[in-house]
Amino acid sequence: MRTNMGTETPSAVRSPSDLAGSLFLFFVAGIALWQADGLTFGTLEAVGPGFMPISLAVLLAGLAALLFVSSLRRNGEALAAWSLRPLVFVLGAFIVFGLALRPLGLSVAGPLAVILAGFASNETRFFETAAFGIAMTAACIGLFKYALNLPIPLAPWLLGY
Amino acid sequence: MDIFSNLSLGFTVALSMQNLMLCFIGCLVGTLIGVLPGVGPIATIAMLLPLTFKVDPTGALIMLAGIYYGAQYGGSTTAILINIPGEATSVVTALDGHAMAKKGRAGVALGIAAIGSFIAGTIATLAIALLGKPLTGLALLFGPAEYFALMILGLALAVALARGPALKAIIMIVLGVLLSTVGTDLDTGEERLTLGLVGLSDGIDFATIAMGIFGLAEILKNIEAPEARDVVKGSIGRLLPSWLDFRRALKPVLRGTLLGSGLGILPGNGAVIAPFASYTLEKKLSKNPSEFGNGAIEGVAGPESANNAAAQTAFIPLLTLGIPPNAVMALMIGAMTIHGIIPGPLVMTKSPDLFWGMIASMWIGNLMLVVINLPLIGIWVRLLKVPYRLMYPAILLFCAIGIYSINNNPGDVYVTAFFGLLGYLFYKLGFEPAPMLLGFVLGKLLEQKLRQALTLADGDMLAVIGRPTAAVFLVAALIVIAVSLSPTITRKRDEVLAE
């Protein structure tokens, strides 16, 4: 992104971060309008199910347009860099936990999630995290399964529940 | 007197062995989780909701209230001991609390925070008991139009209180309300904005949003930019404040309580501004303002009391009107509905034991925090020395088990991961997520009341907004929005929030 040097060809965008934000909001409003396509808007006497979603999506798009305009006129933040590694491993660990819980049980999904999450940080030591994950899972099984009696699968492949 | 018979009913309920135990466990576990850096009350409550499932409704709410106060106190502990405020409201506590800790007075800071909170809690509990009845009566006079207008006012206040540009706060609120429309329409049964996903036909569970944005995204932020953990070395010092400390702190505590109680009642999360307002006030009133930031006990006592008083009076709109003024109260609604209680003016008349039992247990919970936490500080200090590389996978595991257990649904785990991503995106784009949560929380009720109001008025929008009380609320909302959009006010508010 070129910065505004005060010459005759200034960069049009003053706040790249807000510009990106407004584009994201247009995208969200677009999805909402597309999804609300088949819904009845209704009248004021008989408000239909589409009334709120459509009005809100239009309102959101309007506000996004204001943000878009302001990003061209007011100086603001540059786009912030994303760190992909934590994103992939933290969210990945969470999703893997969800996928593994029913078929494999907490006894497997727990340590798996902890170990995977460990990869998100470069300070992690593998064996320490693995041992910690097993210990934490055991503690959680004691708390949630036995003390609180919540219906969490433990190890269906071994115990059948 | 009516109030005394009501309160004594409440204490009979709250002092039963089982409820005392639940309150105790709630406070203890709430503090334990709340002490973890980066885990605020919202994530704590979302995580611990399943703990309350097997208990009767009254017990569950008592336990949740305990978890809430515990989490708040845990946040203050983290702020004082390691200078990492768990959430916005303990930012102020970190300033002077941590400075006190560095001078070897961590114990006194924690002690005065607990004692101040207890005094504030006592007064705020009385305020709830006094105001509960008249406000409930008022609530019964409200029609859908008034409810709708009051919620709009609440959202407008949330814009005024949010950090950053007002336009972005408004955007986040609209987005939150939009998200609340996802799921089956209650009137027609039609599915809305579900993207064809079966898991979304029941709508988005509020706990998944709260956990994604305040649990997962927080972990992502912390791994990326580790906050310097400045664990207090050496002794914590004595716990009980000296008589001199106490005398210095007493007036700030009382002023903070008054300020917090008033702000907490506001729909639109007035609680968040309470500690900031108290800190600014104490600094203005102080004879030596230069002490502030260097360990002034007033700078801990005032904001902590304001915080706790506001946390408590925030129950008033929930219990009397059924309107949650902030995300924590929205989780309380979730817990109430799980147990088949519809929050609102009828709770008080239909189940007085629950209503007054909970109010009494608020006071007991505050007392318990003083009693159990002061001796446990040593344990919290040791816990805070656990490196983050081990702490965050544990937090993640608790979040995952907690969110799964709410509905026993792996789908909720994926939705939470999605909101974690969204929270991270908002952080990168400079959007404050709190107003979105409030928009989401009020969204369904907002739509329902608007539709009812329009039906009652035969579609005449002017008749809806022209009803006197509704009109007053709406005009007030307009003024609040206009004021928060004006640049000078924005600058002043940012100054207060930045201090």
UniProtKB/TrEMBL annotation, chain A:
Transmembrane segments: 54-72, 79-98, 129-148
Highest rank taxon of the organism: Bacteria
Cell membrane is among the record's keywords: no
Keyword Manganese: no
InterPro entries attached to this UniProt entry: DUF1468 (IPR009936)
UniProt entry keywords in alphabetical sequence: Membrane, Transmembrane, Transmembrane helix
Every DUF1468 domain range: 21-153
One Pfam family per UniProt: TctB
Protein's name in the database: Tricarboxylic transport membrane protein
Species this chain originates from: Ancylobacter amanitiformis
Automatic annotation (TrEMBL), chain B:
Keyword Protease: no
Domain (DUF112) ranges: 20-438
Residue ranges crossing the lipid bilayer per the database entry: 20-49, 61-85, 106-131, 137-159, 166-183, 203-220, 327-347, 354-380, 386-406, 464-485
Keywords: Membrane, Transmembrane, Transmembrane helix
Protein name in UniProt: Tricarboxylic transport membrane protein
Organism: Ancylobacter amanitiformis
